[in-house]
Amino acid sequence: MKRDYELDAIDKKILTILQSDATVSHADLAERVGASSASCWRRVKALESAGILLATVRMADAHKLHCGVNVLCNVRVVSQLHASSIAFEQFVREQPEIVQCYSMSGDWDYLLRIVAKDVADYNSFLMGKMLKHPAVASASSHFALETIKFTTALPL
Length: 156
Hints:
- By secondary structure, the protein is α+β, with helices and mostly antiparallel strands.
- The chain folds into two domains: 9-49, Orthogonal Bundle (Arc Repressor Mutant, subunit A), CATH 1.10.10; 69-143, Alpha-Beta Plaits (2-Layer Sandwich).
- It is 37% helix and 19% strand.
- The chain has helices at residues 9-20, 26-33, 37-49, 82-94, 119-130, and strands spanning 69-77, 98-103, 110-116, 136-143.
- A four-stranded antiparallel sheet has the order 2-3-1-4.
- 14% of the residues are buried.
């Protein structure tokens, strides 16, 4: 992977468009950024090769799939030993309810974003799985009341 990929104005336009609609055709993308279709295709492939463009996915509506409860959960592990972190991180990767996980500085070791169908569903996950994990010392849950902004697009 090339570390210092230099983005020009066309690359930035391509990234801006693809971050909002990954289904756009190469011809339409080329027209919108002012480049030929072949040039645009080569640029997209170069951005993929450089590791700048990652997986192409489709976003699903959480409410329509009955996953409308968003919980931000702080987690403290029992030990700062590497083995505790490895065990907890493996657990996180195996749980579909955990959609984001960040290793944190400060009082808590991790911040998780967990989705659930309702509060009872989250409580079942928390009490039945997470707090029973041997690496978990404690957790603090915060329920999102409303989503004000949600985006996956990065500013360019």
